[in-house]
Specification:
2 copies of one chain form a homodimer. Chain A contains 5 helices and 9 strands. Chain A is an alpha+beta fold.
Chain lengths: 202, 202
């Protein structure tokens, strides 16, 4: 009878321990921390957080000085994608539904020359200055069917703090350029992102 | 007696499940995957892997065309640091012993203009081309005391594949420039890395 009770107690303890371990789910927590992108019921999106520790894929740079002072985005375009979606793309060549691509604009550090460059010990060139805005796109083939399955949002084009929520941008401001130029690569500028373009892995 | 056996079986199953969950240790595995930097007993270092999913901190760019064709590193400098060390720096202002900073060089995509730029739908500027080399530095105040606590290694300045191991570089090739210019910021170019410089978090 003591053995019977002992077995019950051991079983209960182990069951409890199992529940604790299952409920801890460290991988799920890590994934949740990695993505805090929230689409509200009214169609607006909340400002994402934590994206600066997502996977960096590229930093195109179109300085104002090289664009008659009229570049649409005269900053570095730091582009980030969550690792799980990069993994999926590398495996399948397709971005999963829900994929978010963040473009954080970062000013060129104090330009000194007409081309926007400055001189540092490493040479004349461009260096990363102040954060200056976020645009992002999210894949939802049903919700954003009219713009090839991707919705576009901006949280401001200025220094921090950014707007806390944003409505979908009109086609003319974001999606139009993607539709015109990169419809064949699922609306994304893969050709500028070595990790996704060249598929050499991490 | 059947209940007794059932309790034993349930207990055994739960114990097994517990062991499986404990041995899986997903968090520890993730951390291990994030850092594979290995210093060999002979002082050489093994080529790191997985660094393209570390935290990106900046992308200085010093095109050859802006440096009389003689830039030391005419590529984008994609700079990555493991998250645990970025976290520590953001908290304490000091890089922990063992911190590794990777600079992966990435060519400017097919230059068309004398300044090395090209024109794309987003404007005239610079876009990320092919991977072209890795330099890294690792903090070990005792081992590298002669170069202010940091050792410098390069795994080639050319397209993939990179060298699989590397010996410490002479002071004249790497550390010298850091000693001359950034000794006061622990040998690191923090002034070009918004995440570390401006401390706004992720």
């Amino acid at each position: 009878m003591q053995k019977y009770q002992l077995a019950i107690i051991v079983g209960a303890c182990l069951f409890g321990a199992s529940l604790f371990l299952v409920s801890a789910k460290p991988v799920a927590v890590a994934q949740a921390q990695q993505s805090t992108v929230v689409l509200n019921a009214d169609g607006t999106m909340q400002l994402p957080t934590g994206f600066r520790k997502w996977v960096f894929v590229g930093a195109p740079l179109t300085p104002n000085a090289l664009n008659d002072g009229k570049a649409n985005f005269p900053e570095y375009h730091h582009v980030y994608i969550e690792q799980k979606n990069v993994d999926a793309y590398l495996k399948t060549g397709v971005f999963p539904e829900g994929t978010v691509i963040v473009k954080e604009l970062t000013r060129v550090l104090d330009p000194k020359f007409p081309d926007g460059s400055r001189t540092e010990p490493s040479g004349r060139g461009y260096f990363n200055g102040e954060y200056n805005g976020i645009d992002l796109t999210i894949k939802d083939s049903k919700r954003f069917a009219k713009t090839n399955g991707w919705g576009f949002f901006t949280f401001g084009h200025h220094p921090l703090p950014y707007e806390k929520s944003a409505a979908e941008k009109p086609v003319s401001e974001c999606a139009g350029c993607h539709i015109a130029n990169v419809a064949s690569t699922d609306m994304t500028w893969i050709q500028f992102y070595p990790l996704l373009r060249d598929k050499k892995g991490y």
